[in-house]
Design a protein that fits this description.
With 261 residues, this protein is an alpha/beta fold. 41% of the residues lie in helices and 18% in strands. The protein has two domains: 6-120, 3-Layer(aba) Sandwich (Rossmann fold); 131-256, Arc Repressor Mutant, subunit A. Helix 2 runs parallel beside helix 3, helix 6 (157-167) crosses helix 8 (192-206) and helix 8 (192-206) packs across helix 9. The model is unreliable at 124-129 and 229-261 (pLDDT under 50).
Length: 261
Amino acid sequence: MATEQLILAVDDEPAVLRVVKLALSSEGFRVLGASSAQEALSIAESYRPDLALIDIMMPEVDGFELMRSLRERANIPIILLTAKRRDSDKVLGLELGADDYLVKPFNPDELVARARAVLRRPHRTDGTPQVVRWRDIEIDLERRLVRQGGEIVNLTRTEWMLLQHLAANPGKIMLNAELLAKVWGPEYRDDLQYLRVWVSRLRRKLGASLIRTFQGIGYMLPVDGDDSSADEDALSEADELDLAEDATMALDPAEARAEPR
């Protein structure tokens, strides 16, 4: 029999903790509640939870600081719970390392679904590269190979670098500026045009559903089992940009420094 997965729920509102415990325990999870950061750190140290749900707005130590402290101790996946609805707050949470973000008041069924989705993601503790799969696509991060339907897909250097960063964080939104800095360099953090074009190229080779668009925020490679469709409006926009400006990308600096694979 499989061991129940343990979830740490942190919120200073007893009513919220009750809802979280009821929703998750009814679906087979074990749940430990904490009303403060200090209590949460003590529980995490003793019980090593598989996932933490953390309220941002807490007295003394807020959720962002608690998230940092937990991550210093273990590579634990984290979902932030908050009453803040602004996109800037969501972006900040993702930038600081949250795996997901859920706004209060939330639907208990959605909470359970998001918890399961995050727990399905590979969370590496030893840095060992893994094979990431999505439908009939297999991305081997160690061997730098991509297969679709068992056949090798040839990618250029820039296409591979972009896909590699997405595949190393499946199910997690990678911010536009972060991807640009990692693939093209810090000086390109604000050049969204490059990113949109190369995402479009990857979609043409590997399928539109492989990379999901979060308008104005970033992109995400879905985890295996997530059948959510790609953002069709954003995809069409990227494809139109690709057609209009494909020729200018031939001088892409990252591509110019190396031969295609």
